[in-house]
Design goal:
337 residues, alpha/beta, Rossmann fold, 2 domains, six-stranded parallel β-sheet
């Protein structure tokens, strides 16, 4: 099968550090090629309509550009702003238009299937992790907390979307060391919240860590925190990497699938982070054992196997892409995956 993944045009693929959508595209390429597919990554202005070729766009305006060029496409929704701005926003309507124009579309957060009530072409597809790279570290260690994220929202660096304050306040209350790593833009967040820097057991690694550096962070910490209040991926990539590394998790998650080793916060606040950390420490070995037993099932290969089935069914559609036909495509792929 020939597949074109449409590049975002903002960050190189594979990304040299941060870049969630770009990491997803690269994972799709690597794992689909193991199934014998031929996968190219192209900028949208280079994409042309070709027979027996799947075109997969990951940003609404690029999907709609494919539509304007008469190119059938599959679309993935990665934009958390659609939920932040609401259903009356241009952002939401723009993404709905991209979904409606697709053969089939995917969201990586189950609750967004129902949120997008103006279309029934949107279906859930989980994220994965590179389980061969993000491996467990078996050496004993004292408890320490880790957060890896790019904070802020809608261009406002002061908004604590990722819950840095909750994590630091919880660490301070419990007397635990905490490391926050991620994109250098996080420095702007701490410019707005300088009081958080007063905690003397806080370490910042805001250097856009490489994959090797990120893996070492998972290996050198015992609990991963993810008290985020808004995500377009449930679970998101760092949560999947932590799970693959068998680092027990305290955080938010909205989905039906059980995440082994995770304490899911019922509310997003410091008190719940503290409660989750204490519970995780008290049940630590059990949670780690649970994660070891299932970690290989998190691999991107399983996601690619399902995606390949979706693509196969999408190639069979020659008529206009009605919602009823799309539903049948999804059912067929789901049953055969």
């Amino acid at each position: 099968m020939n597949i074109v993944q449409v590049a975002t045009g903002t960050i190189s693929i594979p990304p040299n550090g941060w870049g969630a959508v770009e990491r997803i595209i690269w994972a799709y390429k690597q794992k689909l090629e193991k199934l014998g597919d031929v996968v190219d990554i192209q900028y949208v202005n280079h994409v042309t309509k070709q027979p027996n070729t799947i075109v997969h766009a990951h940003i609404a305006n690029l999907a709609l550009e494919c539509k304007n060029k008469g190119i059938p496409y599959v679309f993935s929704l990665h934009d958390h702003h659609t939920e932040w701005y609401g259903r009356d926003s241009y952002c939401y309507k723009h993404n709905v238009e991209a979904i409606k124009g697709s053969i089939i579309s995917f969201t990586h957060a189950e609750h967004l299937v129902d949120y997008f009530q103006d279309t029934d072409k949107l279906f859930y597809l989980s994220h994965g992790a590179d389980t061969e790279f993000f491996t467990p570290d078996y050496s004993p260690k004292t408890h320490s907390l880790l957060m890896i994220a790019n904070n802020g929202l809608a261009g406002d660096s002061s908004i604590d979307r990722k819950g840095f304050r909750y994590g630091i306040e919880a660490a301070k209350e419990l007397g635990l060391p905490i490391t926050i790593a991620g994109h250098p833009d996080n420095k702007n967040f701490f410019e707005h919240h300088k009081d958080l820097l007063e905690y003397d057991r806080l370490t910042l690694k805001l250097t856009n860590p490489t994959d090797n550096e990120t893996r070492e962070l998972y290996h050198s910490h015992s609990i991963f925190l993810h008290p985020s209040f808004l995500e377009a991926g449930h679970p998101n990539l760092t949560l999947m990497e932590a799970a693959s590394s068998c680092v027990p998790i305290v955080g938010t998650y909205r989905g039906s699938k059980h995440i082994h080793g995770m304490w899911v916060m019922p509310q997003v606040n410091t008190k719940e982070v503290i409660r989750g950390i204490v519970e995780t420490i008290n049940t630590y070995e059990y949670r780690r054992k649970e994660m070891f037993e299932v970690r290989e099932s998190l691999d991107w290969q399983y996601v690619a196997n399902t995606l390949h089935k979706y693509y196969e069914n999408a190639l069979k559609v020659n008529e206009k892409y009605t919602s009823a036909r799309t539903k049948q495509l999804y059912i067929n792929a789901y049953n055969n995956a």
